[in-house]
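U., I forgot to send this yesterday:
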Amino acid sequence: MRRLQGSILYLLIHLTILFNIERLDFDGKNVINLETAVYGLTIIAVIMILSIQGLRILPQPILISFWAFVYFTVKLILLSKRPLLGDFYTYVTFTELGLFLIAVFLAQRLALSIEEFEQSAKKFAFASASTIKRLQEAQEEIQAEIYRSRRFHRSLSVLVLEKESSKLPTGIGEAIQDAERSLMEHYISAMMIREISAQLRQTDILLEHDKKDRLIIVSPDTDDAGAKAFIHRLRSLVQSELFSINFGAATFPDHALTFEQLLEHAELNLQQQLDSRISVDTQLDSPKKVQVR
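Result:
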């Protein structure tokens, strides 16, 4: 994260200097007078490097040489009225070229930092997604467990877990805080899945819910009392300063007979618990009225 922050900061500082360098007047004379086209060329180069992957992954010497060639081409074709070299023009040309190529270098550094950050975020996302199946992908497995429970008159519980993230730690500026928050959310989700998976039996099925921050556990041979004991055990074992877990449960055949109904009942149970907790918190936060006699 510090590398990404530094890359953004260095490029912004350099562009600020570039676009204000002509304000540096000595003895009332404008010593540095860059061509207007150089400013436009710098913006084009920065945007292209940041947006085109083929440019950002070029070896640095090749990238610098390419944009130096573009600079001299523009100077010779579009700005042929001003000489490239000779007296004061030599100083101006090398100043323009140096500032332009530094912007190219910093733009490539920022682009590579962003790409590295995106790859890290994808790794966290794929880690959480690859560990468990999605609900749609496990329909046959779920229906097989429902059929087995009906045939052998066994209980089956469905638990819905909802992650509640604590205040996420942030250590950088507001410009990339959203990106850092997204990465932390992926990390917390992967952590929660690992913690939950470590407490499951081999017969339990952990699934990814369609709704964000929710998971589903299908627990065969678990009645209502077993589900409550399971939830209590998870609450005591899965502890983290970064998140807490809320639970809702439903049991076959006590609460419903199909998986869809069990899931709906478990989500309703979860929502009731959340509403009840919010109501209690509101009452605790509200000021008490003191009756004056």
